[in-house]
């Protein structure tokens, strides 16, 4: 007969430990193996957990929210205390602010306290931080041990950055696109494929832009010359200017942009007679503000230069194994000095054309992923 009676009596005598009374915070501790021996031969042994170790770990019962008499360290296991102190002693202000109840002044108080007094050595010492008391400290500790993961739902409506509306499946099947940006005296374009490889990237001077009486024939000559240089692609993406019609001071520039835009649409869109409903438009508009928001270039309603982002992309194309954008060597050599601070080479349109193409692919990818997660 096995000595079960002896074993059970020892457990009953430790009734205060509550072996099966409650659930644990976190995982069970590693238990030391002990053995039960057969009373007949005293040779056969069965390994069991050392219940002294288990009962010691179970003795740290969870504190109730209104139980301020019990030390905070007694409410958590050693592993949990180590995890809490690790974050409180090493977490950045941003990491601390992401914890429940630590937003604002409390996270700053923690950083200031540990800088002045050294790292926290116990959970009880945390209540010395201003604005943190026993109850609020427990909420913070529980939040550290059981963080709430907030899923960021990215919902991007295609119509917000692409005009006219086109079915998403057509865009996803596109092999490449040409991104076109019109300036006051030039037109730039970037031909980029789905693998984010820059196939062509250049600009063309337009001497008749904003000159004289804005002759339509002169404009048409310049725009037609550019259209003849554009490579074939699945779609042509023309930047839609954000200049308001109500801005009377910039009305001539807005009229210029709209004129060039209309001519590009007419020259690049294939003429199909009669129109077929199942064929998508090949020429699209992309909102300039959508590109600015994607790259964090918006300051209020104005968009700042993206030259620094383009320089970083060109550098990563050489230094990174998986760069954001891949550039051929000849384009890197040609434009290596175009986007430097104080450069007068006039690379704004080139810069915007590339960023527009990159933003298009990345926004389309984000939208596809968000739809799959719904």
From TrEMBL:
Predominant location category: mitochondrion
InterPro entries with a match to the protein in the record: RNaseH_sf (IPR036397), RuvA_2-like (IPR010994), TEFM (IPR039150)
This protein's UniProt keywords: Mitochondrion, Mitochondrion nucleoid, Transcription, Transcription regulation, Transit peptide
GO cellular component, one term: mitochondrial nucleoid
A family per Pfam: HHH_3
Keyword Transit peptide: yes
Cellular compartment(s): Mitochondrion matrix, Mitochondrion nucleoid
Superkingdom of origin: Eukaryota
Entry annotated with the keyword DNA repair: no
GO BP terms in the entry: transcription elongation by mitochondrial RNA polymerase
GO molecular function: DNA polymerase processivity factor activity; nucleic acid binding
SUPFAM superfamilies given in the database record: RuvA domain 2-like (SSF47781)
Function: Transcription elongation factor which increases mitochondrial RNA polymerase processivity. Regulates transcription of the mitochondrial genome, including genes important for the oxidative phosphorylation machinery.
Similarity remark: Belongs to the TEFM family.
PANTHER family: TRANSCRIPTION ELONGATION FACTOR, MITOCHONDRIAL
Name of this protein: Transcription elongation factor, mitochondrial
Organism: Oryzias sinensis (Chinese medaka)
């Amino acid at each position: 007969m096995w000595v079960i009676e002896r074993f059970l009596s020892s457990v009953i005598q430790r009734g205060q430990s509550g072996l099966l009374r409650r659930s644990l915070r976190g995982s069970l501790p590693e238990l030391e193996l002990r053995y039960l021996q057969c009373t007949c031969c005293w040779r056969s042994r069965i390994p069991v957990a050392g219940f002294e170790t288990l009962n010691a770990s179970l003795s740290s019962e969870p504190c109730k929210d209104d139980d301020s008499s019990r030390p905070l360290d007694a409410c958590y296991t050693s592993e949990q205390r180590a995890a809490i102190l690790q974050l409180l002693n090493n977490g950045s202000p941003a990491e601390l602010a992401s914890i429940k109840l630590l937003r604002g002044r409390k996270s700053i108080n923690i950083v200031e306290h540990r800088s002045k007094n050294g790292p926290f050595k116990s959970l009880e010492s945390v209540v010395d931080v201003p604005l943190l008391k026993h109850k609020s400290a427990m909420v913070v500790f529980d939040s550290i041990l059981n963080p709430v993961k907030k899923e960021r739902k990215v919902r991007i409506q295609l119509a917000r950055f692409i005009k006219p509306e086109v079915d998403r499946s057509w865009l996803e099947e596109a092999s490449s696109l040409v991104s076109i940006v019109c300036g006051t005296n030039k037109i730039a374009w970037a031909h980029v494929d789905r693998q984010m490889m820059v196939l062509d990237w250049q600009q063309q001077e337009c001497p008749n832009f904003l000159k004289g009486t804005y002759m339509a024939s002169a404009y048409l000559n310049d725009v037609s010359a550019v259209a003849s240089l554009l490579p074939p692609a699945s779609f042509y993406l023309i930047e839609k200017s954000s200049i308001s019609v109500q801005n009377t001071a910039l009305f001539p520039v807005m009229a210029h942009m709209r004129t060039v835009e209309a001519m590009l649409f007419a020259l690049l869109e294939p003429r199909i007679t009669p129109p077929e409903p199942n064929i998508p438009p090949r020429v699209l508009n992309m909102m300039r503000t959508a590109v600015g928001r994607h790259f964090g270039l918006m300051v209020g309603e104005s968009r700042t230069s993206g030259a620094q982002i383009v320089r970083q992309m060109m550098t990563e194309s050489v230094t990174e194994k998986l760069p954001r954008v891949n550039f051929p060597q000849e384009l890197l050599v040609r434009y290596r000095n175009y986007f430097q601070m104080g450069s007068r080479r006039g690379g704004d349109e080139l810069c915007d054309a590339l960023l527009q193409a990159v933003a298009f692919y990345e926004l389309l990818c984000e939208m596809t992923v968000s739809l799959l997660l719904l």
